[in-house]
Amino acid sequence: SSGAIGRAGFEAMAEVVAELAIDAEHVVFGHTHRRGGPEASRGTALWNAGSWVHAPGLLGESAGVSPYWPGTLCLVSDEGEPELRHLLDDRTREELAEG
């Protein structure tokens, strides 16, 4: 299910952070298709930029109901938390399919 895919992505990244002994307040990753964050794991906030690949099987009807909507980037500045920006949220499913 799409929910299981999302949970698995965050769980896998939490394991990578633990296994590599990454000591960071924030870790940004992507490619799991599910955007979101922060998800707390052992004192580290995990931020997932998702994917820029159009995956119609994972999409909901709109960006507002689908964490699998493509087009998210993560801004990281010298201060404060990372910030997810959703650049394609104004597009429809049909517009995404057109490429």
Structure description:
The protein is α+β, with helices and mostly antiparallel strands. Helix content is 24%, strand content 23%. It contains 2 helices and 5 strands, in the order H-E-E-E-E-E-H. It has a 3-stranded mixed beta sheet, with helices on one face. A two-stranded antiparallel ribbon has the order 4-5. The protein is globular and about 40 Å long. The mean pLDDT is 90.
Distance between the termini: 25 Å
Order of helices and strands: HEEEEEH
- What radius of gyration results from the CA coordinates? 14 Å
What is the arithmetic mean of pLDDT?
Answer: 90
Structural class: alpha+beta
For the secondary structure, the number of strands is: 5
Strand order of the largest sheet: 1-3-2
Biggest pleated sheet: 3 strands, mixed
Q: What form results from the Cα inertia axes?
A: globular
In DSSP terms (H or I, runs of 4 or more residues), the helix count works out at: 2
Identify low-pLDDT runs: none
Give the DSSP E fraction (strand runs of 2 or more residues): 15-25%
Helix content bin: 10-25%
